[in-house]
Amino acid sequence: MTQMTQISHARPRRHLRVLLLLLLSATSAWAQAVPFEYRLSFPAPEHRWMQVEARFGGLPPGTAEIRMSRTSPGRYALHEFAKNVFEVTITDGAGRAIEPARPSLHQWDVSGHDGTVVVTYKVFGDRTDGTYLSVDAAHAHMNMPATVMFVRGQLDRPSRITFVQPAGRPWRAATQLFPTSDPLVFTAPNIHYLMDSPTEFSPFTLRTFMVDDQTIRIALHHDGTDADADAYARDVEKIVRESAKIFGEMPRFDAGTYTFLADYLPWVDGDGMEHRNSTVVSRRGALRNPAQQQAMLGTVSHEFFHAWNTERLRSRGIEPFDYEEADVSDDLWFGEGFTNYYDGLILERAGLMTTEALIGDFAGIINTVQFSPGRRIRSAVEMSRLAPFVDAAASIDRTAWPNLFISYYTYGSAIAMGLDLSLRDRTDGKLTLDDYMRALWRKFGRSSNKTPGFAPSAYTIRDLQDTLAEVSGDAKFAEEYFKRYVEGRDLVDYAKLMARAGLLVRKRQAGKAWMGDVRLQTGAGGARVTALVPFESPLYKAGVAQDDYVVSLDGADIVREGQIEEILSRHKPGDRVAIRFVRRGGEKAETTVVLEEDPRIEIVPVENAGGTLSADQRRFREAWLRAQ
Length: 628
Ligand SMILES: [Zn+2]
Fold this sequence. Notes:
alpha+beta; six-stranded antiparallel beta sheet; globular; binds zinc ion
């Protein structure tokens, strides 16, 4: 994206409105144009490939640049979907074969056509999640960027999509694509919308419920019972209703329908991917497994919150989405991080997660942002920009991410939690983060329902700050919050804010000696350091690095698991302990490690720590954590 690293302090509203008008008039002109036709068939699903026939009519004269996407909405790394495409044949509208030029691995240049280009190809896919394509005897699970080609410069064209049932398999399609009178034929108003419309084609179990005049569908592909499906649907409904309370209303779903595409099977991969009117939620395992239910519902909560935050209330950095280059956003700390804060809060408010578990998650978030070395280097905004390197990005070289990076999900959660508690604290509970989300929704989210596939009122970071100034009535507070905690690397005083809710923040290993958050595996030759040693931890300062072997500590040879913990338990923070180790490459080293106190915290209700919960604290806590 060209706007990716701009933090514009001017608001080019006029420009935006002109763009919107152009867009609307263009859309109505094209609505009369012949739609692009996609025919998706599955001649041998067991072999994990499908057949695509794409008929691109009404093309302007000149070379048609046909492409496979390199990106997928909601994902930030490059995925190079062209790698799975094979046996490509191209003709014009009269069936005359045309040999394309190949300027890149992602592109087929077609010259000399008659205004229509027909591309036929096979595409392999064997990963069931929110990003890729999966075809097998049980289903076709299609993420569209991994499946369909598009024509460069023709993203505003409507399309018509036909799913062809494999022989002997009466599969149905679950999708946010617009239905027609034929249950296997759908339409999309533009290519952005098509790309945003994953489709599950299978004998799925369907559950539906209404919220006001809109339908929520759950297309569930699983190996459990109807009772499992019913229980899941009840929990999903609780989440949907609790989420809507935060924004004060549901989004207006295009076509009045929102669809959960849920795949819980032993061979699928875990994911959650948000879209305008649907989501893919997947997980290896089974609904009936109680140990997995919390995580499954957490993903449901997270993805449904995205129907507001990200899909409609959307950062200008990712709008419109680029299918050719990595999409970079300054605002994933908000789009993902604030969503991450709310997904747990919603579960807890809906009675699907214990308060204790939620508080445990909050402690984990504080520990990560407070003590991960990455915060010395980069702010939450800068972490957001790294998404193309870390969001499902494959790298075969080792990276230093544990020392250089804090997930914008976690960092953003910490900012959201800090802001929620700060607003409650300074107004004695009159203003909350929910008020802020609602104000943002009204300004930037709600209006974007007009054009399916686009969010014409996308926000900038300045808009987020200005809205906080409006909601809080205090421009100085908003400026400082953004300057210090979002664009800067400071943290709010969580202990002080948590105390308002009668929650005690204290060291979880007070008085115990500690060498750092280091991973060790003991075997022949000592304890091997199996992960990056955190910057400035006691072991780091002693010169011990990944792949080194700790041979002895405090004079004792290290020969078994648990031995290092035993030695540490006999010491206090500040003790100097002899350490011998062998560096990768064979160099022997002998030095002392100065033990410290584990700085990590836990959060404990004051009444569980021998204190008394005051009436004021109780009120504060309940307003925050009770069902709204
Ligand atoms: Zn998310």
